[in-house]
């Protein structure tokens, strides 16, 4: 039986969705949602005001591991960029770029790998700066380089996030399933989305180039003979060796979720220390502080708007999230706000696999309209939990579907205000880049949703 607290939650979910559809930030609706739910539950305005802060604390505790590891890895990437180690690391890929096809997929693969380990935002600047001149010389226009960066990095890498596991951790927490479930059960969906979107994207680009609709500029000079110091070479060797060792350990010791994230984070810290010591000697004590500050600044900037949003959607569960606003407001038989809503839906609306997959995919895409991608995956996970319990299907598959559509839309592939970094580094219009990515990504989402219907 639904009570006033359930309807209050539903009301604010609708307000959040409308706000996203209007391309506005959702922090105020989410914060007001927490306050109103706490006020309804406790009838105490002082407690309700404190409930806002308590919900932030609980959400931060849930996300702090991911915030830390991303901050540390960004700090490491800044050190590698400053010492030119990153440029040296990608040199082998540059040698195989002979034509526009090899250029497109070489840029994409390097972006994918770096994004898995260093996050797409810092990887964009590195890949764009290094590969743009070579790609243009090989016949790939700047818009093609930007597409490869977007589709492989902000699309495939960010939506899968196999290494850092930030996205699946947030989604899994909201869906009430394991991180490994999100990754394993959604594996087919991840690759269907990638193959369809990237394949169609390159096909349309190549077709338009053959028709003369896209011109290639060779205005950028290429400096192929770069001299690297022994310190740079050692730094460039340590990083892949360190992370390859992590991957091996993950398989040998079956490390997943938080354990895998901790291993990556600890390795990144040790690599940062070693690289700083090797390159700066006595100045390393101060230099590493600068890198850490830059990395943590990035982490806070990225996650600061996510915490209030996650706090609101986490309230739909039982446990410490609901306790932040007073856990005694639900009936004894309640399984949590979202679970109760799911049961009510299953009893009142004829739901089936086609409907729930379509709704999950659509809502995920809508939540991506704010240009973040991450801000909507808590909702995607929460809805997956509701629908999974309503029609007795795998919530992990639904959550993966919602995660895919939210991040491919908002992570920086088709929302113009979300792909400005890639457009800027390649010197192209964000609107033009969004138009180029739109059809491939939309077709990819439709095909992926259809596949989800059959495997759910």
From TrEMBL:
Signal peptide: none
Keywords in alphabetical order: Membrane, Transmembrane, Transmembrane helix
Transmembrane segments: 6-22, 34-57, 63-80, 101-119, 125-150, 162-182, 188-205, 234-254, 260-280, 292-315, 406-426, 438-455
Keyword field contains rRNA-binding: no
The keyword Ligase is annotated on this UniProt entry: no
Protein name (database record): Transporter
Phylogenetic placement of the source organism: Bacteria, Bacillati, Bacillota, Clostridia, Peptostreptococcales
